[in-house]
Amino acid sequence: MTFPEPSSAIAAQNDALRSSLPFDDDADFARADRGFIATIDPLVITDAEGAVVWDGQSYGFLTGEAPASVNPSLWRQSTLVAKHGLFEVVEGLYQVRGFDLSNISFVETDAGVIVIDPLISAEPAAAALKLYREHRGDRPVKAVIFTHSHIDHFGGVFGITSQEEVDSGAVEIIAPEGLVEHAVAENVYAGTAMGRRAGYTYGAALERGPRGQVGAGLGQTTSTGLIGIIVPTKDITTTGEAYTVDGLEIEFQMAPGTEAPAEMHFYFPRYRALCMAENATHNLHNLLTLRGALVRDPHVWSQYLTEAIHRYGDRSDVVFASHHWPTWGADEIHAFLSTQRDLYAYLHDQVLRMLNQGLTGVEIAEEIQLPPALERAWSTRGYYGSVSHNVKAIYQRYMGWFDGNPASLWPHPPAELATRYVDAMGGTDRVVDLAQTAYDQADYRWAATLLGHAVFADAAHQGARALYADTLAQLGYGSENGTWRNFFLSGATELTGGNFGTPTVTNAPSIVAQLSPEQLFDAFAIQVDGPKAWDLDLVADVTFSDLGRSFRVTLRNGVLVYLEREPADDAQLHITLPKMRLLALAAGNTSQDGIQVDGDWSVIETLLSVLQPGDPDFEIVVP
Fold first, then answer.
1. Does domain 408-497 have CATH number 1.25.40.880?
2. Burial call 280-294: b when 16+ CB within 10 Å, e when fewer
3. According to the 3-state scheme, what is the secondary structure of 591-612?
4. Is 334 exposed, middle or buried (0-12, 13-18, 19+ CB in 10 A)?
5. Does the predicted TM-score (pTM) go above 0.85?
6. Percentage of the chain with pLDDT > 90?
7. pLDDT surpasses 70 at 489
């Protein structure tokens, strides 16, 4: 769609920001350029069929001063993050940045190389490895390290190595304990809903440009190639644990429950280099992502940063991470890590102080103020996680969804609530008139609230949809947070151009294949359409021939329950099959090929008939 011109109010707001932040401080640009060796020109990466999976060239417009349609602070961040190529961090340690949402790092061992975080998909990872080898020689991969359990840190592993190489022992996969369990759970259990909302978060369907997608703060966007996972061969479990790969020693610090449920930092004594995974990047991170996730713990996050400073600060010449650019020098490292630590600790402690004064999450988000030193530090700006939604996340972590006001305890759902509001205001046309007044007065937040109700009460009202889209565009133009901008502009896109669905899918077959039997049955359980299954009473025994494990599975009262136990004669059905055959069965292959059947096969057919897979095209901005 063609978004409107930025309003004079938004242009003035963006211009005023230039005087409140230290735009004359360009040290980050020198750091982001430091050690540059080479890049791919043009940076367009395709898959085996020729489809583009990463287009770094699409961000070529990010030069010069920010236009009025982009918050200048976000423009600055996007300009930095869009820099791409192979960079020397220190001699023997290299990063490829700008080939995906995340960085991929290469740490040279005695005779080979360790690869850290192989991006989201295989094609960009392979392109990065090729670029590294062109300039550092054809060093064999000795190990791959996954810093944590998010897909942009393991999904491209098949661009770096193969299952066969890992099985042979030629390549190790090193990760914090629990990584596969958490990775699979995130991408399968709530994967459909998260994937749909991730399309909004990263602006996947938006055109690149000054009135479209300019980045996501943490990185520019997500690649769309082949996604996979390889089960780690070495689980790291303990802070202080040391491990050597091809002569290169690594010291580990566990950091679970921070930016990811399974996460770790690590230190390379040979290079005096500290990897902080995703817990110290050049922005305020998310405590609750807009795509959805478990609420993260800013208190423990800050404590792990304190521990990292204490354990490694005086021994490090450089700190690097899975996103953004490194920080060099003892004083700079201490200042950077301490500022990051203080940011998360301050948010945590102040939200607790204020909620204990009776303020709700929404109220705290409006009132909280960062200390001047944190407010003016570029590395604490809310490009990915905003102060506003992080504050609400902390409130949610401690107090839940209820704000304590009885009026909030049992409201009508959105469509019914919207209908009542619109009727009370005199109908949809009247609400649109009120919203137009708010729009003209640059009160875009109120206009969006009014128009959200109008569209949920009458989704076909074209005047409401058009003004709502224009309103969201203005909110996007003013947003310093990249994901807020993407959400606003994605909403505007769907209001005028229709549902764009889920552009990227994270529950790839190789990830689903890692489901344990328990996780597989859990995945079935969350798909059971309860009302359709109320009257069913099914009992089946399932034996996994490749795992040597058997489970009793029952479906009663709309609830699927499983228990590991030996098969018994009282089951209506006993099937024996490999785990992958059960996955194929769930995917629609209902033949009995590859399955040993003893009993009533209709039990399976009945069970499958009441499963309701997630809808990757559910509506967001309209009812």
1. yes
2. bbbbbbbbbbbbebe
3. CCCCCEEEECCHHHHHHHHCEC
4. middle
5. yes
6. 95
7. yes
SS3 at position 46: strand
Beta-bridge partner residues of 598: 574
Q: 94: part of which helix (H) or strand (E)? A: strand 93-97
CA distance 165 to 299: 40
- Measure Cα distances from 180 to 230, 276, 582 in Å: 9, 20, 20
What pLDDT, on the 0 to 100 scale, is given for residue 189?
Answer: 87
Give the integer Cα–Cα distance in Å for 206 and 139. 39
Q: What is the tens place of the pLDDT at every residue in 248-303?
A: 999 999 999 999 999 999 999 999 999 999 999 999 999 999 999 999 999 999 99
Distance CA 99, CA 94 (A): 14
250 forms beta bridges with 243
Distance from C-alpha of 589 to C-alpha of 585, rounded to nearest angstrom: 5
In the three-class reduction of DSSP (H, G, I as helix; E, B as strand; rest coil), residue 358 is classed as: coil
118 preceded by cis ω (within 30°)?
A: no
Which architecture, in CATH terms, is 515-609?
2-Layer Sandwich (3.30)
Q: Where are the domains of the chain?
A: 408-497, 515-609
Residue 109's identity, in one-letter code, is T
* 49 three-class SS: coil
Count the helices and strands in the chain (H runs, E runs).
22, 21
Task: Tell me the per-residue pLDDT of 72-120, one tens digit each, with 9 for 90 and over.
Answer: 999 999 999 999 999 999 999 999 999 999 999 999 999 999 999 999 9
| CB of 459 closer than 8 Å to CB of 423 | no
